[in-house]
Specification:
Elements: E1 4-7, H1 13-22, E2 24-27, H2 36-42, E3 48-51, H3 59-64, E4 69-72, H4 82-88, E5 91-93, H5 100-116, H6 118-126, E6 148-152, H7 156-167, E7 171-175, E8 186-187, H8 190-196, E9 199-202, H9 216-220, E10 227-230, H10 239-247, E11 253-256, E12 276-278, H11 287-305
Parallel strand pairs: 1-2, 1-3, 3-4, 4-5, 6-7, 6-9, 7-8, 9-10, 10-11, 11-12
Bound molecules: (2R)-2,3-dihydroxypropanoic acid.
Length: 314
């Protein structure tokens, strides 16, 4: 008899076809994220689970199933109770590396967009509010050249962003647990990054140490002209404090791809602010990257189902 696997969302057809040949494959094809009740019901009897970053995979889910492996379609793993999985002997696979360039591209894109006010201009045109543009102060933003970019979390994505920024003539400083060997970038303390940067981009995983690390006290120490970019996880910023800082122009603006609670609706306070650019958690969303992630997620699943360590294992 085929073993059961449950996918909380769809993957590419080619991947799903292969899964169906190997396992009794149950796929949630409705609105995402799958509801808690449906997740608990459909995971019953499953030995493999493919999940997404917005699914909370905790003790209750793991106890409801007979999991050998959890394969997340993400590099982030903060939605999984990894300690409990370890206790139960459940293997966890994830999808690092392949999304580094896509995510760094998006971080840079948000930076350019908010600094040059592209989306703000787009909103203005669509609302029929464009009147003149060539006056000395009309719609002026900021250039990248000579600006200091402070990167917090200099892993693979942070390094990929640094390359892009350097090519645009920015000075890069970074803060990381370990210093890296690259003479073009200067290591700086967290406090220095906060006080000296013109743009700050966050590339840390969400853990208990990074939860809410950008809060009112930290925002207060930033330059009033700083732009804050976040493509990591929403919860590393205290969103309420950020909204307050943006409202009173304590900082210049923000480019955000991730939020404390997703999806974000049009009534969210951030959606009412002009000095922010928002994107719907699309850091990894290129066709090429998403396919590679699906291939890795499937490979991790197969290895875990065979009692082996996933190719990319947590
Ligand atoms: C990840 O992989 O963790 C991204 O946030 C979603 O693709």
């Amino acid at each position: 008899m085929k073993k059961k696997v449950f996918l909380t969302g769809r993957l590419h057809d080619v991947i799903q076809r292969d899964l169906k040949k190997r396992y009794k494959t149950v796929i949630h094809t409705g609105k995402m994220p799958v509801s808690r009740a449906e997740l608990l019901r459909r995971v019953r009897g499953a030995e493999g689970l493919v999940c997404f970053p917005f699914d909370r995979i905790d003790r209750e889910v793991m106890d409801a199933a007979d999991l050998q492996v959890i394969s997340t379609y993400s590099v982030g793993i903060d939605h999984i109770d990894t300690a409990y999985a370890k206790k139960k002997g459940i293997k966890i696979g994830y999808t690092p590396d392949v999304l580094d360039d896509a995510t760094a591209d998006l971080a840079f894109c948000l930076m350019l967009d908010v600094m040059r006010r592209v989306t703000e201009g787009d909103r203005m045109i669509r609302q029929g509010r464009w009147s003149g543009a060539l006056g000395a102060y009309d719609y002026t933003g900021y250039g990248m050249q000579e600006k200091t970019l402070g990167i917090i979390g200099m892993g693979r994505i942070g390094s990929a962003l640094a390359k892009r920024a350097t090519a645009f003539g920015m000075k890069v400083i970074y803060h990381n647990r370990h210093r890296i060997k690259d003479s073009t970038m200067r290591y700086a303390s967290f406090d220095r990054i906060i006080s000296d940067s013109d743009v700050i981009s966050l590339h840390v995983p969400h853990t208990k140490d990074t939860n809410g690390m950008i809060h009112a006290g930290v925002l207060e120490k930033m330059k009033p002209t700083v732009f804050l970019i976040n493509t990591s996880r929403g919860a590393v910023i205290n969103e309420r404090d950020l909204i307050a800082a943006l409202r009173r122009k304590r900082i210049a603006g923000a480019g955000l791809d991730v939020f404390c609670s997703e999806p974000v609706g049009k009534r969210h306070p951030l959606a009412g602010l002009q000095n922010v650019v928002l994107s719907p958690h699309i850091g990894s969303a290129t066709a090429e990257t998403r396919l590679k992630m699906a291939e890795i997620a499937a490979r991790n699943l197969h290895l875990g189902m065979a009692g082996r360590k996933p190719r990319y294992s947590v």
